[in-house]
Amino acid sequence: MVINWNQPGDPGAPDDRVLAAEYVRMSTEHQKYSTDNQSRAIREYADRRGYEIVETYADEGKSGLNIGGRAALQRLLDDVESGRACFKALIVYDVSRWGRFQDPDEAAAYELRCRRAGVAVHYCAEQFENDGSIGSSIIKTVKRAMAGEYSRELSVKVFAGQANLIRLGFRQGGAAGFGLRRVLVDQDGQPKNELHRGEHKSIATDRVILVPGPPDEVAAVREVYRLFVNAGMPEREIAALLNERGILTNLGRPWTRGTVHQLLINEKYVGNNVWGRTSFKLKKDYVRNAPEHWIRSDGVFKAIVDQDIFDRAQAIIAARAAKLSDEEMLTVLKELLERSGKLSGLIIDEAEHGPSSSAYRNRFGSLLRAYALVGFAPEQDYGYLKTNRKLRERHPVLMADIVAGLRGVGGEVSVNDATDLLNVNGEFTVSVVIVRCFQTLAGSLRWKVRIDTAFNPDITVVVRMDADNDQPKDYYLLPRLDMRAAMLRLAEYNGLSLDAYRFDDLTAFYRMAARRPLRDAA
User: Which of 89, 86, 90, 53 has its CA nearest to residue 73?
Assistant: First the structure.
C-alpha cells in the first residue's frame, strides 16, 4: 500500500492563498516528464494546499548534470536571494528536478539557498512532506544520490551502445566532411536517403553510414593527397589552389592550411570509423583519450583515398616534428605565440611550416604541457595541475616519514621502488595515496580516492589534504577486504561505513607494525 502524505490540508480562503513559484525542468532523455506535465501536477498540488502560482521558472531540454546553461534556475536563485521574489514558496515536481548531480550535496545546496532566503520548498510528486524532519532529510539524501547514480549508469550504457554501433560501421554524429555524404539506412542496412546538413534520423532503428560524395569532390580530395605526397606541395599552397578554383569546404567556406591539414589526417577517407578521441562524460571536463582507447572499426566505409598514399601523407606529417628537437619545437611555438598573442590547436595547425598540434601532443604529452613550457596560460583554470605537481613532489617526503614512523616502533619495512608499495614485517603491504581537496559549486569539500587495484595492497593509507592542499587534514586506513570499489568519493562526513577508518594521525597505523615480546603479548 502506498501512503499519500500529500493529503489536502485546510486551505484558507481565496484571499489567504500563499504566493508561490514553480520550477520545472525537462532533459532530453526524460520526455515523459515534460514541463507541461510537471506544471499540471504542481498546479493541482497548489490548489489543494492553498497556494497561488505567480511565477514560473522553466528549463526545457536542459541536462540536470550541472547548473551551467540552466538560465531559469540561475534566475530563480538570483530573484530569491536578491529579494526581488514576491513569493514565499517554491513548488518542484520531485527531488531530481533540481538536477542529477554527481555530488548529492549540490542539489541540497540550492534548496538550502531558497530556504535561507525565506522561500519554503515543496515537492508535489514525492511521498513525504518536506518539513525538515529526520525522515524527510534521509529520503531526500537517498533520492539525490539515486538521481546522480541514474545519470552515471545511463552514461555508461549510452557509451557502450555508441561504441557498439561504431564497431558495426555506423556513423555517430558529426558532419560527413568534404568529399563524403551521410546516408540513412534501415535496420536491415538498406539505404533510404541522403541526410543533408542539419538533418537527423527520426526513427530509432535507422542508422547512418558514410558514402563517397559527388565525383568532383572525391576527385578534389584525391588531388589534395597527390599534391601533398607526390608533388610535395604544403597545405597552404594547396588551400590557395583550391580557393583559386572556387572550390569551397563542406561548410561553404574558403580553404585554409588548417582545413587542408584536417583533410589529410582523417581516417574516414580510407574507410575507417574512428570515435572517442575525446570524452565529455557527465558534463565534466573534456578529456583527450589515448589512441589505444579510441573506438574504431577499419574498412567499414567505401574508401575514396588509397591506404598507401594516406600512410605516406601521415609519414610526411610525422617527419616534420621528428626532424626538430624539443627545443626547436618550443621555439617555433613561442614565435607563434608572439605573433598571434594566444595558442590553440587550430592556430598551431594554421601556422606555415610548423609541427601540427598532434605533433606537440605526441612529443610533450599534451598541448597544455607545451603551452606551459612557452609561458602561455589558457583562460581556463588549470590550477589543479600545479596542485597535483606539488602533491607528487610531497609524496616521497611523506613516504620517508611513514617508513621512519614504522621503524620507530620496531617494525621492519621495505619499499618496492617500482610500485612504491611498503612491505611491513613481511606480513602485509601498504599503498600510500595523497588525495587533493577540491570544492564543489555549492562550496562543499570533496576528495576523490583511487585505490590501486593493480597491485592490491592489503591496506591503503589515504592522506586527505586540507582545503588549501598545504597540510594533511586526516588519514583513512582502508583495508582491501572491506573496499569493493576502485574509486571513492569522500565528503567531510561519510557515515560510519567509511569514517570508522578515519584517524587524526598515523599512531594507530604505526601500532600495527609494533613488535612485542611474546611474554608481554600473553
Answer: 90
Task: Report the C-alpha gap between 292 and 289 in whole angstroms.
Answer: 8
380 three-class SS? coil
pTM: 0.48
Closest CA to 516 of 426, 409, 414: 409
pLDDT at 74 over 80: yes
Backbone angles phi, psi at 450, to 5 degrees: -110, 115
| Burial class of 134 by CB neighbour count within 10 A (0 to 12, 13 to 18, 19+) | exposed
For 310-319, which contacts have Cβ atoms below 8 Å and span 24 or more sequence positions? 310/225, 310/267, 310/269, 310/270, 312/229, 313/225, 313/228, 313/229, 313/264, 313/265, 314/265, 316/228, 316/229, 317/261, 317/264, 317/265, 317/356, 317/359, 318/359
Name the most confidently modeled range: 265-269, 288-292, 320-324, 366-370.
265-269
Rounded to an integer, what distance in angstroms lies between the CA atom of residue 65 and that of residue 75?
18
Alpha carbons 293 and 278: distance in angstroms, whole number? 10
Q: What angle do CA 487, 137, 42 make, to 5 degrees?
A: 110
- 1: pLDDT strictly greater than 50: no
Q: How far is the C-alpha of 460 from the C-alpha of 452, rounded, in Å?
A: 8
What does the longest C-alpha to C-alpha distance in the chain come to? 96
Instruction: State the amino acid at position 458 in one-letter form.
Output: D
Helices (H) and strands (E) in the chain, counts: 16, 20
Q: Are strands 191-195 and 180-185 parallel, antiparallel or unpaired?
A: antiparallel
pLDDT for residue 132 is more than 60? yes
Q: Provide the pLDDT for residue 2.
A: 44
- Residue 18's pLDDT band, with cuts at 50, 70 and 90, is very high
